[in-house]
Amino acid sequence: MHQFIEDLAQHEGKEVTLKGWVYNARFGKANIFLELRDGTGFIQCVISQDMVSEEAFEAAKKLAREAALKLVGIVVKDERQMGGFEIQVSALEVYGYSKDYPIKVNENEHGARFLADKRHLWLRSKRQWAIMRVRNEIIMAIHEFFQTNGFVQMDSPIFTGNACEGTTELFETDFFGDPAYLSQSGQLYAEATALAMGRVYTFGPTFRAEKSDTPRHLSEFWMIEPEMAFFDLDMDMDLIENFTKHIVNRVIKNKRVELDTLGRDISKLENVNQKFPRVPYSEAVKILRGEVEVNGKNAIAIQEQDIEDAKKGIEEKTAEIAEREATIKSGVKKGVRKFNEAKIIVLRGEIAELEEKLRNLPKWITSAKNFEMGSDFGNSDETVLTRVFDAPVMVYNWPAKIKSFYMKEVDGNPDLVKGVDLLAPDGFGEIVGGSERETDLDILVRKIKEHDLPMEAFEWYVDLRRFGSVPHSGFGLGLERMVRWICDIHHLRETIPFPRRYGRLLP
RNA sequence: GGCUUGGUAGCUCAGUGGUAGAGCAGUCGGCUGUUAACCGAUUGGUCAUAGGUUCGAAUCCUAUCCUGGCCGCCA
Questions:
Q1: Dist. CA A12–CA A259, nearest whole Å
Q2: If you measure CA to C1', which residue is closest to nucleotide B11?
Q3: Measured in angstroms, what separates residue A334's CA from nucleotide B39's C1'?
Q4: Are the C-beta atoms of residues A392 and A422 closer than 8 Å to each other?
Q5: Considering A226, A281, A313, A401, which has the largest number of Cβ atoms within 10 A of its Cβ?
Q6: Where does residue A230 fall: left (phi above 0), alpha (psi -120 to 50 degrees), or beta otherwise?
Q7: Would you state the pLDDT for residue A80?
Q8: Whether residue A151 is found in the same domain as residue A198
Q9: What percentage of chain A exceeds 90 in pLDDT?
């Protein structure tokens, strides 16, 4: 039996056996410092020449990044270390050596393509480790929330015979000779199970065949879809708010080390602990256009300020590069030169990002200012809109024509439907989409026809309105989008172990 | 699908008409506690591919392929 790094505080001063991999190694004449990882954490292990056998020290000299080994040693308190402890090694045994490990300790020194090709190894990096641990915590928080609130998990099928909402492109497969499609949503099935079980949720993979090559899309992702009988839109929004708060607070409580590793500003996450603003679509449009301010903040003005900040940033960074280049040319020691050269590369990268911003922001402002009442928010519109809030914001009562057929009409205003989107702050955009469902048989049938959907494929769904139709609501959460927001990650490809997206099927 | 940035050593990049460069990784040596360790030395490149302009092309032009980013479609 061996111990795990995350439990070492319980073993202070005692001997432990650890099994893991060398994350990084530093070699001195009489001391070798191994940063060991075992999946539960990272810890520095010191191998001193006079504390281990000659054979063991010789074996340790040959270790390189990602070599696998067992080691025995004493847990020693050391304030300099990240976890507060280190291991003074007394014995070690190598399982497998490793040579020329391709991924650097600082993974930022690699391009996206290179890392994607090495995903099977990239997952061993500290940053990826932290993301996957947060992802797991989010999954646990989701199950905990529903399981302790009377919900039953009811899986929806992955093979389906029809396009559920009739819009998105699906992956077609062969089901004993008939065409079958990989599920793009479990919602319609969740409605059926909710009317059987009361309150349910699905938790499963979802597939979309759109050729969307963006930071916010995957071809295969995980979706959670609760559905509740006897629930209206207001209750749905309450649930979305409580659910989101529960997840974020549990991650903050249990995954602090991982969030710190990711450099996540936790105070921003703590902003969820306030009432989420609830804004009708029509009001959101006015905010987006800059016609209405929120807490003294104007959406358009914030973007214009961003442009000025970006320009200023480019000037400052350009000046700093010139200064550092002059320092290098003036003839300095190698260490100083190297330091400055590394800084210059980082600065150039930052300038490239700011220039990208300068190319985009004017387009975003134009899009926001000229936004037409009745159309759907684009990605940049969501970013601009959410900048005036510091908590997630719920936009509700949407135009019927841009939402799905199953959403319930707003009483007295059939042009609007009782849908709600939860938009995360800081430009992370839509995380949750939900609605109160249409309960009236005749209206639902009319809408299916209006959307040109094949009635025969929806007969079973319409049955739900024939036999004890009740008000019911639900929502869908994209798991990876939640991970992305909580971890503050730019691209969804880092939020799932093996991302499947347009142009990427391996590894 | 549209717009756009790039392709130079295993990795990340500089070089923009005149002899192919740096850091990291690798290899060798040094160093009594290192934190992306440090110090010294060293290996490594048909400058994406094809064609063109030129006395001379990594650099200019054309085409093709690949890549990063933004938008659209959406969770």
A1: 25
A2: A110
A3: 10
A4: yes
A5: A226
A6: left
A7: 79
A8: yes
A9: 68
Tokens of A235: 């209750």
- Name the token pair of A114: 């290179």
Enclosing domain of residue A205: 126-276+450-494
Whether residues A150 and A234 share a domain: the answer is yes
A263-318 confidence digits (pLDDT tens): 899 999 999 999 999 999 999 999 999 999 998 999 999 999 998 988 888 888 88
- H or E element at residue A82: none
Asked whether strand B has any atom less than 7 Å from the CB of A345, the reply is yes
**B chain positions with any atom within 7 Å of a protein CB:** 1-2, 4-5, 10-14, 22-27, 30-40, 67-75
Span A114-169, pLDDT tens digits = 999 999 999 999 999 999 999 999 999 999 999 999 999 999 999 988 755 555 68
Q: Is the CB of A329 under 7 A from strand B?
A: no
Rg, chain A, Cα only: 27
Quick check: A70 CB within 7 A of strand B?
no
**Which residues from the 387-426 window of protein chain A have CB within 7 angstroms of nucleic acid chain B?**
none
Q: Which CATH number fits the domain that encloses residue A13?
A: 2.40.50.140
pLDDT of residue A169: 80
Cβ contact A468 with chain B strand, < 7 A: no
Cβ within 8 Å of residue A501, ≥6 positions away = A212, A213, A217, A218, A219, A492, A493
Asked if strand B comes closer than 7 Å to A353 Cβ, the answer is no
Q: Which of A458, A447, A464, A459 is nearest to A407 (CA)?
A: A447
Residue A74 domain-assigned (yes or no)? yes
Contact A246, A252 (CB under 8 A): no
Distance CA A276, CA A242 (A): 10
The Å distance, CA of A8 to C1' of B24, is: 33
**Same-domain check for residues A79 and A140:** no
CB A241 under 7 Å to nucleic chain B: no
Best CA proximity match to A104, nearest among A122, A130, A84, A88: A122
Strand B closer than 7 Å to the CB of A348? Answer: yes
Phi and psi at residue A180, in whole multiples of 5°?
-135, 155
Question: What distance in Å separates the CA atoms of residue A203 and residue A155, rounded to the nearest whole number?
Answer: 7
A48 neighbors A31 (Cβ within 8 angstroms) = yes
Q: State how beta strands A152-153 and A199-207 pair.
A: parallel
Give how many domains chain A has, as a whole number.
3
* CB-strand contact A147/B, under 7 Å: no
Task: Respond yes or no on whether ipTM tops 0.85.
Answer: yes
Q: Which residues of chain A (81-120) touch nucleic strand B at CB < 7 A?
A: 81, 86, 88, 99-100, 102, 104-106, 109-114, 116
Q: Outline where A370-475 has alpha helix (H).
A: 379-386, 441-450, 459-466
